[in-house]
């Protein structure tokens, strides 16, 4: 019996690895096409593909062991996922002090409120086989919303340093000088989720609905449940985008109401610096 199970698993894993190899070949072909147009993503793509495969195999092994764990185990797994998501999102603001904590607070607040609400209303059952996959989808989208908010707020503020400092010089409150950029950052984090909700069922049928239908659930109920999940993703993204932008706004000014969020220093190429340092160059 055990030998048959091991043989089944080995054949299943071998088939999965073959399918993964096909996906990697397709990704490599796309990278080569991008390289043809001077878009160099070879290194980042190789790292991302390798990490993604290893991480998913590891997650599968962990879930196989913890598949029948209790609610506490599931929440601990989601907490680890939240921290990993915060590390990824904080890369958008590496030069801002405490960016990891800002991202963690925002992602934890957005996904935590939504997951807790779904558990309280019975929309999400405390079964680790359901809690972790659905929770991970919410956390992942919250992470993307957080990163998009940070990127948009940084870009807008650093592109309008002159206007912001002019407003400060005229006596405006720091929050008022960046209010339009707070609004645009939060909207930028919500826009992909709004489009996702609008196209639900017309452009794409998400995996949760397909999985429920395969397992024998009513197609109508599966569609309604998928709508609930996407709506909760929108709510979590809104919370995270708003919180991280407000926290970042506070970090953008010093205690003396001076703008500290500045454009990143662009280092000149070595030949250019050498040419400018030669005698006769002004």
How is this structure best described in words?
The protein has 282 residues and is an all-alpha fold. It has 11 helices and no strands. α5 crosses α8. The chain is globular and about 70 Å long. The C terminus is likely disordered.
List keywords for this structure.
282 residues, mainly alpha, 11 helices, 0% strand
Q: Give the end-to-end Cα distance, rounded to a whole number of Å.
A: 83 Å
Characterize the main sheet: none
Low-confidence stretches: 270-275, 277-282
User: What is the SS-derived class?
Assistant: mainly alpha
Q: Based on DSSP secondary structure assignment, what is the total number of beta strands?
A: 0
Amount of helix: over 70%
β-strand percent reads under 5%
> What is the overall pLDDT average?
82
């Amino acid at each position: 019996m055990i030998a048959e199970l091991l043989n089944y698993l080995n054949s299943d894993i071998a088939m999965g690895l073959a399918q993964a190899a096909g996906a990697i070949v397709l990704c490599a072909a796309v990278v080569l096409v991008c390289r043809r147009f001077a878009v160099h993503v070879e290194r980042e793509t190789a790292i991302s593909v390798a990490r993604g495969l290893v991480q998913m195999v590891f997650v599968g092994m962990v879930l196989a062991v913890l598949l029948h764990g209790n609610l506490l185990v599931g929440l601990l797994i989601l907490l680890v996922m939240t921290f990993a998501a915060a590390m990824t999102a904080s890369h958008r603001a590496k030069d801002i002090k405490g960016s990891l904590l800002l991202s963690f607070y925002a992602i934890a607040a957005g996904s935590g409120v939504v997951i807790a609400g779904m558990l309280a209303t019975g929309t999400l059952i405390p079964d680790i086989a359901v809690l972790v996959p659905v929770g991970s989808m919410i956390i992942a989208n919250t992470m993307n919303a957080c990163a998009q908010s940070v990127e948009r707020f940084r870009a807008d503020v650093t592109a309008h340093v002159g206007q912001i400092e002019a407003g400060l010089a005229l006596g405006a409150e720091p929050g008022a000088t960046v209010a339009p950029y707070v609004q645009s950052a939060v909207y930028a984090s919500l826009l992909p989720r709004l489009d996702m909700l609008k196209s639900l069922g017309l452009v794409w049928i998400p995996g949760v609905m397909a999985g429920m239908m395969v397992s024998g659930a009513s197609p109508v109920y599966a569609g309604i449940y998928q709508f609930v999940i996407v709506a909760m993703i929108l709510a979590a993204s809104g919370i995270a985008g708003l919180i991280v932008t407000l926290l970042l706004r506070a970090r953008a000014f010093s205690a003396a109401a001076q703008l500290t969020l500045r454009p990143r220093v662009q280092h000149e190429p070595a030949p250019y610096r050498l040419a400018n340092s030669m005698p006769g160059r002004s």
